[in-house]
Amino acid sequence: FNVYGIDTNKKTIENGLKAVEKNLEGLVSKGKIEAEKKDAILSRMAFSTDLDNVGDADVLIEAVFEDMDLKKEMFKKFDKQVASEEALILSNTSSLSVSEIASVTKRPERVAGMHFFNPVPIMRLVEVVRGALTSDETVEQVKELAGLMGKTPIISADSPAFIVNRLLNALTCEAARIVEEGVGSVEDVDTGAKLGLGHPMGPFELFDFLNGIPLLLHVTDYMTEQLGERFRMPVWVKNLARAGLAGRATGRGFYDYSQEGK
After folding, report:
1. Residue spans of the chain under pLDDT 50
2. SS3 letters for the chain?
3. Would residue 218 show up in a list of annotated catalytic residues for this protein?
4. Which listed residue (57, 95, 98, 115) is catalytic?
5. What CATH number should be reported for the domain whose range is 51-158?
């Protein structure tokens, strides 16, 4: 694929390109790809802050913050700018309604969710989310696209947080209640999830790694509104976000990282 990446922040673009180069260098060092293939991949990538460059896109994947108004604003722009009526206009939303996002376009049948998982180069799963007006053809094309990317697609109806994050957030809410009730510590819960359930990371360790505490609360508040009280996060977790703690990047989240590297 020829890929065109767009962001409003030049620094974010620079950091993104560095991350891609680092990931590819890692594959070269492990012997999984040749150096020539790395160079060929990079040659097919371009980056810009100019949204006007999406006009000739065959596939557009949006990945802005999980805010419905922002996503609607972006999809209104995409609908006007993308010339091809056959183009796939996709959202990487992890929780929001694809039907509502698509409602601001004149081609809701070509809009679907295509939700990737972090870290994207490693995680093989993609959720393909069918909106109320998404066509069968669109769903099949997104599934095919996922396969071409080396991913395994699963199909989800348009329900808050879809399949995987509904499972993950239910687990994380219960994990937080276990800590709140004094049944076990953060460390005990994570160790239990890893050694008892076979998870590579416990829920607290995972959200610290993703610097995702604010997003976790944003999404679970939405899920509580849509699906009920079982997704309401305890106050002690909300207080972490209120204190400006997101995870590893802030030096503290569910765990304290302030002494690392010192």
Report:
1. 262
2. CCEEEECCCHHHHHHHHHHHHHHHHHHHHCCCCCHHHHHHHHHCEEEECCHHHHCCCCEEEECCCCCHHHHHHHHHHHHHHCCCCCCEEEECCCCCCHHHHHCCCCCHHHEEEEEECCCCCCCCEEEEEECCCCCHHHHHHHHHHHHHCCCEEEEEECCCCCCHHHHHHHHHHHHHHHHHCCCCCHHHHHHHHHHHHCCCCCHHHHHHHCCCHHHHHHHHHHHHHHHCHHHCCCHHHHHHHHCCCCEHHHCECCCECCCCCC
3. no
4. 115
5. 3.40.50.720
Residue-wise pLDDT for 153-163, tens only, equals 999 999 999 99
pTM score, two decimals?
0.88
pLDDT for 45-56, tens place per residue? 999 998 888 899
- Whether 164-250 and 51-158 are alike in CATH topology: the answer is no
pLDDT of 53 reads 83
pLDDT of residue 261: 54
Helices 235-242 + 213-227 axis angle, to 10 = 140
Amino acid identity for residue 26 in this structure: G
Residue 154 token pair: 């699963």
Kindly state the tokens that stand for 25.
């260098």
**Phi, psi (deg, nearest 5) at residue 81:** -95, -30
Q: Select the CATH number that applies to the domain covering 164-250 from these four: 3.10.450.350, 3.40.190.80, 1.10.1040.10, 1.10.10.10.
A: 1.10.1040.10
pLDDT at 262: 39
